[in-house]
């Protein structure tokens, strides 16, 4: 499993063993956690983690097979910095809020 898909200390994360928390990994089981939600992803085009292959946005193509809507916005001129997060956080909060209010 890629390091970005697991807790920092998997052995002690909420007392869970990896076999327990893996069932909550939506990349392994998209659409299996109840209500169908659409996914919003903002990604900085200049993100060093992306160019190094540490972020795997192409893995979300499995969502199209499962008929899960994904909006992937590759943001020109942004990296993995605070400014990237600060710029797009309001959109992402609104996205989550529409489901929390439903």
Automatic annotation (TrEMBL):
Keywords from the named record: Hydrolase, Serine esterase
GO molecular function: carboxylic ester hydrolase activity; S-formylglutathione hydrolase activity
Enzyme Commission identifier(s): 3.1.2.12
GO cellular component, one term: cytosol
GO BP of this protein: formaldehyde catabolic process
Enzymatic class: hydrolase
Superkingdom to which the source organism belongs: Eukaryota
Pfam families documented for this protein: Esterase
Keyword Transmembrane helix: no
Function: Serine hydrolase involved in the detoxification of formaldehyde.
Sequence similarity: Belongs to the esterase D family.
Protein name as annotated: S-formylglutathione hydrolase
Record lineage: Eukaryota, Metazoa, Chordata, Craniata, Vertebrata
């Amino acid at each position: 499993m890629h390091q970005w898909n697991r807790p920092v200390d998997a052995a002690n994360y909420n007392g869970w063993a990896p076999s327990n928390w893996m069932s909550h990994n939506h990349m392994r089981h998209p659409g299996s956690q109840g209500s169908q939600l659409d996914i919003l992803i903002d990604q900085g085009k200049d993100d060093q983690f992306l160019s190094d292959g540490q972020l795997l946005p192409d893995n979300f193509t499995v969502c199209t097979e499962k008929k899960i809507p994904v909006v992937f916005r590759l943001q020109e001129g942004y990296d993995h910095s605070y400014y990237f997060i600060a710029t797009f956080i309001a959109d992402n909060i609104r996205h989550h809020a529409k489901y929390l209010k439903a």
